[in-house]
User: Fold these one by one.
Assistant:
Number 1:
Amino acid sequence: MESYSKVLSNDQLLEVLFLSKNATAIYTSEHIVIEMANDAMIDFWGKDRSVIGKPLEDAVPELKGQPFINMLKNVLLTGITDKGDAIPAETMREGKLQTAYYTYEYRPIKDESGIPYCILHTASDVTDMVKAKNAIKETELQREALDQEQILISIKEEQQKNDFISMVSHELKTPLTSISAYVQLLQSRGLTDLFVVNTLAKVQKQIRKMSTLISSFLNVSRLESGKIQLNLSYFDLDKVISDVVEDLGLIYPTNQINFEAGDRKLIYADQDKIGSVVSNLISNAVKYSDQNSAVWVQSVIMGNEVYVSVTDHGIGIKTHDLEKLFDRFYRVESLQTKTISGFGIGLYLSAEIINLHQGKIWAESEYGTGSIFHFCIPLAS
Ligand code: ADP
């Protein structure tokens, strides 16, 4: 077999270098004289072959004031290779001084005793790549600025919506309070006509429903604008549940709402808000069940917490809806729920209230069979 033991001559090496697509030049002497430069390097400088044999700073005067010539002198002095990636340099392009970006290497060539005597300079123009990267970065920054702007607009719109809900709710509350007062006035007149008595009771029932709804809207808007406040006090949770059950018993007389108060369950919480959570869960249990279906409410102490559950044998909830029930304005869309009125804020508010009390709320359900809603909150310490 033929052996490849021959070594390339200097001329052959130079030929290889000069065929290279990379811009290549060789400098000698402490004046950084251009010993050789391939066409790619000459193009790079924007010059012609007359530069060969001249010191670099005379051949390419625009390099004066830039760091490159000193860097080359340093390489010759120290014998250490200098390289850089995407370094900006001012170069002559189409008769104008322009910023271009280079990836370069200044490699010292040393004699037998290790003394550098010339420098091999290779470079590639990465201006297009750098410009493309900068353009991408610019577009990303613009997009981020737009996203930011969009977020601010959404926050503002959300704020306006909350302000609107709050204003409308307040405006609705005032006449409703007057209506309720007039109805109570009539009821206190010792009416004997049974039809009138019953009708007034129904009016009062509807007023109460509407009032709860308006309060929910007000609470949503307060919650969203961070203005909801807890009026904390010590109270027996079972007592609050009993009161709610009694109240709702009047509104939903055909549904049996079962609750047996047990030992005192002292909690330190916002009584009205916890009452509204219980009321919401029981109202839902009734709303999403048959007219005569019963509801069971239970409360038990486990560890340092009290657990409350509301069980119904109503329409039930599909698994994929269960995850979203506590989202704002979420309502299950089905033929059964279509005719049941609501806004999808009751559970959202309940969850927020329970969270504010460092508690948990969740639901389990079997579609078509019934649901159990649970919450737990810490007992007073
Ligand atoms: P609303 O009842 O006003 O729509 P909620 O936030 O109280 O709003 O409830 C959200 C949705 O959860 C309801 O629309 C209903 O689809 C479902 N849901 C709540 N409670 C029950 C329940 N006990 N049984 C079946 N579905 C329920």
Note: The pocket of adenosine-5'-diphosphate is lined by residues 280, 284-285, 288, 312, 314-315, 317, 325, 330-332, 337, 342-348, 371 (CB under 6 Å).
Number 2:
Amino acid sequence: MKLVFATNNKHKLAEAKSIIGNDHEIVSLNDIGCNENLPETGNTIRQNASQKAMYVYEKYGVNCFADDTGLEIDALEGRPGVYSARYAGNDCDANRNIEKVLTELRDVANRKAKFRTVIALYINSEKHFFEGVVDGTILTERKGSEGFGYDPVFCPDGNNLSFAEMTASQKNAISHRGRALEKMKGFLI
Ligand code: IMP
């Protein structure tokens, strides 16, 4: 089946292709000629994922899924959460988001956090949701140069490496999005 992944993030696309690419043809927004910023105004990651997928499904008439991810830090009462992408301000990049988190956690002993991804799948007039979570800790400094976003400061439980020190397949095997994608894969088969 051909499925549009409502993203142009090359890391996310590679993750999705490696997990469900053998069974389904995964194409990006660029591939269907969509270069717009998708609406993302929800109060939860589930609402945002749903909004993005519905927009593409309705406007382009294609089976489609979208993901939204939040980094939830215990000592910050779940922040940045749904605001993870623009935590340091509207025009901020990953570096500044990380800087803000590290500053807020300076001298904080409890560094527990989790990544949560929700995938919304719009297919044949139905919608379905799949969630994936990974528990871990926020490091005191950046480690590694792979991946994207908060990867350099997130160390999943049971590992000595940050996500940014892992190969793509190591990360996929345990990551929030990897887990959500595996659930979707099980549903689609
Ligand atoms: P979105 O789901 O793409 O909107 O991502 C929300 C925020 O979480 C952005 O700042 C992303 O860079 C970050 N993010 C999403 N997925 C990951 C990941 O797998 N690792 C690290 N950061 C991520």
Note: Helices lie at 10-20, 45-60, 94-104, 168-174, 176-188.
